[in-house]
Amino acid sequence: IGGDLWIWKYPEITKSYLIASDPSRGDGEDYSGLVVMEVESNEQVAEFKGKIDTQTFGRMCVSLGMEYNNALLIIDNKNVGWSTVQVDLEANNTNLYYSYKNDPLWDENIHLRKMHDLKQKEDMVPGLTTTTRIRPVLISKLEMYFRDFGVLVRSKRLLNELKVFMRLGGKAQ
Q1: Which of 69, 86, 121, 162 lies 20 to 30 Å from 150 when distance is taken between CA atoms?
Q2: Residue 1 exposed, middle or buried by CB count within 10 Å (0-12, 13-18, 19+)
Q3: Distance between CA atoms of 50 and 27, rounded to whole angstroms?
């Protein structure tokens, strides 16, 4: 894909993976991006950053998810992200992340417990709904994982993004 997909490690059959993705329209200033992480070691194994349309990006997410042992696929569903989520739904991916509708807080222990207790998907929406309420929690969790679990980042693109990430007026940007 024009050299925009970087792979450091190919999938190992005994490993679990997750893919976190952020779609964009593909024709503006913003880039679509995804990171493939090996779950147990918190190691980045692949990354994409490029300008492609939401449908192509969705197909790439599905393909990489299948290649990486049916990886948990987390797609930001805000705005144009719905188009990418739709591609994944049409592919009948059984490992798509779902967000809870009208959840007052975001705690992974509560969400994991709910996932096992949940009987109806009507209480959920496909993809990760990144709202102004959830965004600070996500950033806080990201900081915690880097500090407490030793995340291994292989990408100079991602490292450069992290270097310019700062808080301005109390908001992470």
Answers
A1: 69
A2: exposed
A3: 10
What pLDDT was estimated at residue 116? 47
Question: With contact defined as beta carbons under 8 Å apart, do 56 and 170 qualify?
Answer: no
What SS3 string covers 42-73?
Answer: CEEEEEEEECCCHHHHHHHHHHHHHHCCCCEE
Mean pLDDT value of segment 12-41:
91
What is the reported pTM?
A: 0.83
- In three-state secondary structure terms, 120 is coil
Identify whether the C-beta of residue 36 lies closer than 8 Å to the C-beta of residue 48: no
CA dihedral for 48, 52, 55, 56, sign (positive or negative): negative
Assess contact for 34 and 26: CB atoms under 8 A: no
Is residue 72 over pLDDT 70? Answer: yes
Cα dihedral sign, 54-163-40-114 = negative
- The one-letter amino acid code at 137 reads V
Other residues' Cβ atoms within 10 Å of the Cβ of residue 104: 6
Q: Residue 53: helix, strand or coil by DSSP? A: coil
